[in-house]
Each structure stands twice: as structure tokens, then as C-alpha cells.
UniProtKB/TrEMBL annotation, chain A:
Keywords: Cell membrane, Membrane, Transmembrane, Transmembrane helix, Transport. This is Peptide/nickel transport system permease protein. The keyword Secreted does not apply. It is found in: Cell membrane. Residues 135-326 form the ABC transmembrane type-1 domain. It comes from Marihabitans asiaticum. InterPro entries: BP-dependent_transpt_permease (IPR050366), MetI-like (IPR000515), MetI-like_sf (IPR035906), OppC_N (IPR025966). Residues 1-26 are annotated as: Disordered. It is a multi-pass membrane protein. The keyword Disulfide bond does not apply.
From TrEMBL, chain B:
GO terms for cellular component: plasma membrane. The keyword DNA-binding does not apply. One of its GO terms (biological process) is peptide transport. One of its GO terms (molecular function) is ATP binding. It comes from the Bacteria. The keyword Nucleotide-binding applies. This is Peptide/nickel transport system ATP-binding protein.
Amino acid sequence: MTPTHRDARDPGTKGPRGLGSRKKERIDELAATAGASGPVDEAGAIDDTAGVSLIASAWRRLRRSPVFLVGLAITIAFVVLAIVSSWLAPHDPGEWLLYDKVSPQSNPIPGPEPGFPLGADDKGRDLLSRLLVGSRQTLIVGVCATLFGLAGGLVLGTLAGAFSGWVDSVIMRIVDVMLSIPSLLLAFSISAVASRPSQWTLIIAIAIVQIPIFARLLRGSMLAQRSKDHVLAARALGVKKSAIVLRHMLPNSLGPVIVQATLVLATAIIDAAALSFLGLGNPDDRNPEWGQMLGRAQTYIYDHPHLAFYPAICIIIVALGFTLMGESLREALDPKSRR
Amino acid sequence: MTTTTPETARRDPRGAEPLLSVRDLTVTFKRQGEDPFVAVDGLSFDVRPGQTVGLVGESGCGKSVTSLAIMGLLPDRGNTVTGSVELDGRDLLTLSNKQMRDLRGSDIGMIFQDPLSSLNPVVPIGRQVTEVLERHKGMSRKSAKPVAREMLHKVGIPDPDRRLTEYPHQLSGGMRQRALIAMALACEPRMLIADEPTTALDVTIQAQILALLRELVEEMDTALIMITHDLGVVAGLCDEVNVLYGGRLVERGDRHPLFHDPHHPYTGGLLSSVPSLEGDAAERLNPVPGSVADNLPWTSSCAFAPRCSNAIERCREETPAAVASGDRVLRCFNPLGGQASPAESEEDRR
Ligand SMILES: Nc1ncnc2c1ncn2[C@@H]1O[C@H](COP(=O)(O)OP(=O)(O)O)[C@@H](O)[C@H]1O
Ligand code: SF4
Ligand SMILES: [Mg+2]
């Protein structure tokens, strides 16, 4: 790994330099944004008017950010498409409508014709319908993988952040080991272990890779909460430890986790495509999914690149949407970028 | 009459047993690669039921550390606390974490300097008050709600029904501090510690909050430890004032004698800077010339010597002992106004 400016900037970070430590630094930077208190007063300026909540002030900045708005528009369009695609699609995406036109030697992929503007795939199914309906499975894969990863990360991160000492050490050791493995390699290994690949093995493999990221992120922001005044004030009232963790620390640590979840939606969809491409996708293709469509298009990539091109473009646009939204959220919540 | 025992509990003229009795409280922080730092050094004082006691001194003199040590809220690691803190004869320093949790909020309440950051931003005010009642009074959330409402009303929050459901950012600074006072007093503790409760507020709001505190502790007969860097704050509030410098008590006295006739040069410096109409702001910000960075070690001198207008040669060579004389305690070789000095050093005592 070549060292980057990130590595050079922070000599305090322990451990070997490399992919893992860059990943960790990025997570820790994001976690630090949870430590930021509300609207920042100029030094010494005290005003006795009611303040503005962090979310309200973040929203005010986001509303004027074109990057965020573009990301939001793409995301909304994608979700709406996923919901209405079944009615929008001209044909059933699973039906072998043009199968009689398919001949393995001369015409493996039927071209466009009236009623089938993008042609069909290798089984004679309407490509446009498959692309449209594919948005639904893609959304399901992205959301489920993110939710499972988030849930696992919340549990581990809360445990680690709530208990210092050996619980924290053990969890973080495991998390750091997982983080040091390149994420695609880890997802590949996990799904390769599954005896029968399916959509769910795919989702779980992608989710597991996200768990350590969410866990480290949440632990970091919970640690920042531990030294907060309101946590001290709650302790001064004798509030029980469980309530301190669940009511006073956890909810205030979620900001960076939500930002990360938005970004993970993008990576999950891309990872699903990558795993399908590597042959670990869902073998059942009656319900199309963009990553799966892309993965299967590799057989025909030289003579019929459009089969790969369309789902790839869809994936890129959607991933871009989530990423733009996530990055602008991160910036809006980051005190360093605040005016 | 001069006694030679330092800082012993003075005999209360009213005969009441002290509610809280701090003896030789010493808090030492370990520092990496440096000598340990003694933030509070052999501090002793008493608080009787219903009494208001001030702890005064400039920033960094150990006021907050003292209050956190009493509350058992210092970090788990990196410090040692010695001495004793007896509440009704029970030494708080020997209690378990659980026993302390049961005590905090029900027997001792505490309010902090910054009312905004001391409230949980994502939980409505009402919920934050009922939380204490549920915790210590075993109430259900539903039955605690009218009590919380009553409490908000008591601390002067207008329209408490609406405020119950509001979030901290929707309240002004003064209202937030009132809400925190409501939480701290919800279970009617016998003792309240207020750590610079008005420092983060505007001047007009400061006066309101102080008046409220005074009214509440009188009404509920709560003992109050009032912590501040501003002698002006304690002027109207405290029965007794303890002046701290560099972690040690340098002077103690009842409010009137101390204000009218300060003996310790540091107390004198603080008093001359109490804001008055003609007081100029710059002078107020730096009441005593120099800074704590100039301090000498207490172990072999008077820490205040480099900044002291009355310093004599002896001040840099010996440690002045805290000497009790009636209700006054003084730690100084050359007090203001040429008082007959007990002129005793800690070295003499050994
Ligand atoms: N957790 C801690 N670790 C190390 N030093 C501390 C810690 N808390 C306070 N101190 C030190 O103890 C001294 C007294 O602090 P504090 O009681 O907060 O002062 P103040 O009188 O302004 O409230 C300061 O010099 C501070 O740096
Ligand atoms: S002992 Fe000396 S240096 Fe210290 S306060 Fe008294 S006169 Fe000043
Ligand atoms: Mg303080």
C-alpha cells in the first residue's frame, strides 16, 4: 500500500499502515462528528434565545446543497421505480417471450423489435422489463444487507461502547481483524462457504462485511458521548447504567451511523454485482436483480456488451445517488465544515 | 484564641450536626511521564442542614474536582481520592458504585455550568424530569408526569405543560438551567451542589437563577454548596465562604466578616474585583495579577507568593499552615491589614 496524505497527517494512529488502517481512520473521523455539540457559538458569545437543533441546522444547509438534492432526487426516483416497476414494465420479466428467436449459434441474444425496445436476454425475456423490475430486487438486496449489517454493528458497537474493559477489547479485536481483510475478499469468502448460494447468502455475506464498520463507528461515537456533559449530568442524577447507555449515549451516537448506512446502501449494491460477477450470485434469475444481470452478461460481453452496459449504468447512477446523499449528510453533520 | 488544629469542624453555634463533612479530601491525578498532579489538597469543610456554603476560587483551583469527588463522579481510573466525605456519618468514599447511584439524585443533587450541554438533546424536558422520579421514587412514568409538571412550575418555567414535551434546544439558556434545577431537586435531596450554575448565562438571567436557587433551598430546607469563581455571586447567597487557591483552602469565614475584613491577600484581590458599577471589565477578568501558571509548589512555599502583594521572604521558603481562629481559618504568613499573624508553618507542626 502506498501511504497517503491521510496516513501522513495523523502520526498518532497505531498499527501497521495499510488498507485496514486507512479504513479505520475514515471510520474514526466520521465517529468524531458525533462528538460535536449543537450549533457552535462564537467563543464567549452567550445569547439567551432558544437555540436551533443540530438536525434543523443541518437541514438548512442541506436544502441549499445541489449535491445533496441531486442525490436525494436519484434516490427517490429509484425507490419509486422499485415500487411501481411491476406495473410499469411492458412484459413479465420472467417469461421467455422471444425464446423461439434464440439460437445458441447464430442469434444468442435477440435484438430490439416492436414491443421490445431493448431486445431480450439469452432466454428471450424482455430486457427493458427486466431492467425496470430489477430495481426492486436491487433495492431489497441493498436495504436488507444494510439493515442486517447495521443491526449487527449496533449490537457489537453498543456492547463495546457501553462496557470498557475486556468486552470492549475482545469485540474490537475481532472487529479490527475483520476490517483488515479487504471487504470484497471477505464477502467472497463468506458467500463461498455457503453450500447453496441464494439471494440471502449474498445479502448476508455483504451484511457481515459491514458489521465491523458499523461497530467501530458506533463505539467511537459512544466513547465520545461518554465524556459529554449530559451523560455526566444524568449520572449525577443516579440514572442507571443501562438507561445511560440506551437513552443518553446511544441515540446521540446515531448520526454518523445513519450517514454510514446511506453510503453502505451504495456499496451493498455494488458488492452484490461484484459477487454475482464472480459467480456467487443468486442462481435463480426469475426475479431479476441488476447485479445478477450484470454478472450473467459476462458470457456475452464481447458480442453483446449492451447486456452488461444497461444494468451497469443503472447501478452506477443509483450508487452515485446514495453516495452523493451520504457524503453531503456527513459534511452537514461535521462540525469542521460548519459555518 | 488560636487553636493549633487545622481546619477542624468549627463548633456550630446552633449546635446542629453537620450534614456533610469533608475531611482532608485529597484528589491526585496521575499524569503520563510527569509527577502526579494534586488537584485538591487536604480540603476540609462542613455543611450543616439548610446551610449554604460557598467554594470560591479562580478557574483550575479544584472546585469542580471537589464536587465530583463528593458525588463519586470522578473517572474510574487515573486518580486517587483520600480523606473522607461523610454524609450523615456515612463515608461516601467507601460506598459501592451502586450505593452511590442510589444516593445521587435522591440525597445529593448537582447542577452544572453549561445548561445546554447538560441536557440530553434528544429527550424531551419532561421525560428527563420524570426519569429521576421513576428512578428514585419508584413512580411510573404516568404518575411522575404531574409531579414533573409541578416541579417545572416551581422553578418558574412558564407554561409547563407545553415545556414538558419540548426539547432542550427549544428552551432559552435560563429556562434550560431552570429545567436542570428541577431535575436536581425533583426528589427533594437534602443537599445540592451547584457548580458555577450561572457562569454560562447573561447577567440579568444570572440574577434570576441565583434568586430562584436561594428561594428553593430555603423553601425545601436543602443544604447548598455553591461553587463559583465570582465572589459577587456568593455575596448574597452563602452563609459561609471557603476560598481555595491551588487546591488548598486559604481562607474561610462567615459571609459578613469575610467580605468586610478579608485577611488573605488572595481573598482581598478577589473582593476588589467584584463587579461594581464603576468596575472595569478588563480588571474583572483578571482579578489578581499573574496566573496559576506562576504557582510555587505548596510543599515548600506558599503557592500564591509570586502573585501576592504582601509576600515576604518566608513565603517562598515555608508552607503556611491553615490556622483556625474562632470561625475563621487562614493560611497566610503576612495577612492583610497587619492582623496578628499566627505565623505558623506546616514545617513547625511536624
Ligand atoms: N480528569 C482529570 N485529569 C487530570 N487533571 C484534571 C482532571 N480534571 C481536572 N483536572 C485538573 O485539576 C485541576 C482543577 O480542575 P477543576 O476542579 O475543574 O477546576 P475549577 O476550579 O475551575 O473547577 C485543573 O488544573 C485540571 O487541569
Ligand atoms: S503566605 Fe505570603 S505569599 Fe502567601 S498569601 Fe500570605 S503573604 Fe502572600
Ligand atoms: Mg469548574
